[in-house]
Give the backbone structure.
Amino acid sequence: MQHLFILTGASRGMGLAMARQLLSSGNRLLCLSRQRNEALQSEAEARSCRLEQWAQDLADAGSAAARLGQWLDQLPPSTVASATLINNAGVIPAIAPLDRCPPDQLSLALRVGLEAPMQLTAVFLRATGHWVDNGWRGPRKVLNISSGLGRYPMASQAPYCAAKAGLDHFTRCSALDEAQRPHGARLVSLAPGVIDTDMQVQLRGGDPALFPDRQRFVDLQSQGVLSSPEAAATRVLAWLDRPDFGDNPVADVRDA
């Protein structure tokens, strides 16, 4: 039996770092990203880890969810020791006030950052819930990668902030649902701290005339307080192993 991990946004940044850290002979890893990573595939083979990668557009959340649901329905539960879904993918649209954000970018941010996690979580809970109904008793976990921007407003970031706030709140709601079910899943929406990724580069490159908080992100880099993707991935994955995982469905890696 293997520990099953399903991870979105594994092509770069913290998502790629998490994927690499999950490459273990005891794990089975499915990655949903914009493109396959051949180096990751080679690493998986070297570590005897079963890795499958889908080049999946998460903006088409319905298609991604249907594909995942079919895949899980065909997976023999007897081969799975535990099942974990990590919704990591996210998109920052144009850094500008809402009325100046291109409609297609606004839609993309909400589809990838909120609709896709909800759709994927729904099929994950449904499929693994059927396993439970048929006697499977492995732990089930959903880890949604949130952000401080889902909890604190910021000018020129309405779509991204809204997506992360929605991620937090749907996690709370689904956690309440699962608490009512025998052997229910545990869910957490986790803020991973400030990380040195392409997203930070985007924020530092914002137009100061449109993005009043730009200097804050410039200062974070110059002060050396950004975590590396690898260090952030380690802290995030360690959260999954906490005995109290799910007791607080909205959390921060900096919490005690």
Remarks:
- Helices lie at 13-21, 38-46, 61-73, 103-133, 158-179, 198-204, 214-222, 229-240.
- The mean pLDDT is 93.
- Residues 103-133 form the longest helix (31 residues).
